Amino acid sequence: MSEDPSGAGDGAPARPARRPNVKDVAALAGVSWKTVSNVVNGTAPVRDSTRERVQRAIDELGYRPNAAGRNLRQGRSRLLALAIPEIRLAYFADLAHAVILAAKAHGYTVLIDETFAEPGHEQVVAEGFRVDLLDGVIFSPQALADSDLVAAGGRLPMVMLGEATLPVDGGTAAADHVVIDNVASAREATEHLIASGRRRIGFLGVRATETNGTGVLRHAGYKAALEAHGLPVEAFPAPAYSRPGGAEVVGALLDRFTGPDALDGLVCANDFLAIGAMHVLRAAGLRVPDDVAVLGWDGTEDGIYSNPTLTTVAPDLSALAELAVDLVLARVGGSTATPQVHTVGHRLIVRESTV
Amino acid sequence: MSEDPSGAGDGAPARPARRPNVKDVAALAGVSWKTVSNVVNGTAPVRDSTRERVQRAIDELGYRPNAAGRNLRQGRSRLLALAIPEIRLAYFADLAHAVILAAKAHGYTVLIDETFAEPGHEQVVAEGFRVDLLDGVIFSPQALADSDLVAAGGRLPMVMLGEATLPVDGGTAAADHVVIDNVASAREATEHLIASGRRRIGFLGVRATETNGTGVLRHAGYKAALEAHGLPVEAFPAPAYSRPGGAEVVGALLDRFTGPDALDGLVCANDFLAIGAMHVLRAAGLRVPDDVAVLGWDGTEDGIYSNPTLTTVAPDLSALAELAVDLVLARVGGSTATPQVHTVGHRLIVRESTV
DNA sequence: CACACAACTTCTAACGTTGAATACAGTGAT
DNA sequence: ATCACTGTATTCAACGTTAGAAGTTGTGTG
What we know:
The structure is a homodimer.
Chain A lengths: L21 H8 L3 H9 L6 H14 L5 H8 L4 E6 L5 H15 L4 E6 L4 H8 L9 E4 L6 H6 L6 E4 L14 E5 L1 H14 L5 E6 L7 H15 L5 E4 L5 H9 L13 E4 L2 H13 L9 E5 L4 H4 L5 E5 L1 H16 L8 E4 L1 E4 L6
Parallel strand pairs in A: 1-2, 1-3, 3-4, 4-5, 5-11, 6-7, 6-8, 8-9, 9-10
Antiparallel strand pairs in A: 10-12
Helix pairs in contact in A: 1-2, 1-3, 5-13, 8-9, 10-11
Chain A binds a DNA duplex through helix 2 and helix 4.
């Protein structure tokens, strides 16, 4: 009916055909558009009276500097990506939350890229995923081995989470890494089980394909603790660090929970494995923690509301996220410091599953 | 030591000082930059041999069209935002996952905005959050009432999830809405409890502040089912649709689960409330489902691995996400169709908690 | 040989922004 | 009255891309 092509309502001010730009503001304020820019960015001194006049024009038109123009001019987008296997996994949702907050504190916006742990997609990320759009990437790789990253020429500032992409020989890292002390935390967690009287403790979550990943390191700490007490070591691989993964492995392992050498403790490489494991154990008529003690990693909220509640190693996620954002933004700012491995804190939260 | 300011390694090709642009590609391929543009965008016909030559140059230089330049020229960023209360809540993580996939199918990238259900921040989103950067927004509001949205002039294509921002009087919606049939699904779920012999069924999750929100509609369906059977209605408010929220409410309500009129069923407005409720019920020595049947909404994976496993109403999330993306992109493309309310499917998944 | 047509080039312009350089006015000193 | 200086404000140019128009080849057709 109306001739207004914008389709906006009647009562409200009609949607302008074109978003206002600096020139519109300048025209309304009666100054040059550069002065408007100066007011917006504080680039050059502007007289108070002029500033007020410009500000009034900005408010009246609802002017917001166009991001594309600004990005083009400045060569920066103030956009970071967080590349993770899958946002549905609680740990990564927690991580994303922490990273979004940390980035916002620096005026940065975060966009989530799900890799689904596919080597192909992870390789794409490593090689400079959306280098046309992003200022930097925070990358939590899963399938990528240490050697892969070195091959990719660092086209885009990148920070790695976890040790997976570190050279096994201890050589120079290709990018900054942020990690928790997996060996120490695994030792702590295992010591906790031993202290509560467990003697036959299994480890769930070794991975054949990993050379330097989370699972390997946690397994190493677990092994060190048991060997220090002269106790037997028994490790099982997991296809995926997920609830179904944990359920599957433990399901195929149920006969190891009966007989004279029955397992009475299970160190799981993360909370999901532990919850999947507990689910199957319960279905098989085994009691947690009475028959088997179970613990995991990540400190996800699931462990607070699981039945029984779950003992877990919780990384200091906000510290991790802030550090990762600081490091990647330092590179964006031009830093060429030698990449390093940074360790953030963790703590063991003891709950019902290991009482 | 090296004079190379890029800081790149030695073996790998040094990071170029400047990212290649169309002119660099054109020079290498021996064609005009316009031809490169034509190859990249398919704007005009190009001979196969030429196309190949250009493609080789693109690959060799690792050329990727600069997003800022392209956005500026085309007036579109191919960026959508998904505004949700909090990514850590499993339902929203599932939703984000579905939206990311749906958007990717259209060449769009998604950026997550967490509103924390703060009215202030939700208002900002409604008024055209990052209109300078985004092509559109998919918005799952929590605190926003129906009237608020109308006031905001639609500066940015927006699709709303859920009924919260619909006018109560059934008037014209200010934007497209995508919903599930909350009344019908609540009736189904409640009928399921009645069919399994429950007679004293409570509802968890009404909200005083809502006029047209999810909780109100699910309560209406619940009420309709009970009244159809002449059974008593008993509803309780929840401070937040979270596990702690569910735990808190049920914790203060434990005496309603003993005595002659003891509740033997609990319809919870979402899975989180249900899991929090089950947690407290168990701690108080009550058995689910023996003493109390419990169910929720959202179909989150938590309900598969909870103890007991949880009966839930699962929305068809991929349909919901695809529809939302289609609708918002239609607006981006210039559609001025009258906003409508679109309903997607759901199904009741029966598990242990209501056997 | 004129003509149509395809493939490509050249040229112009514009998207909105901001750094660098420059112009301008007003003040105070010489 | 001239000059230097300071505080403001302005003009210029460029970021990388693409749309459009007009011109230039080369090839094949009538």
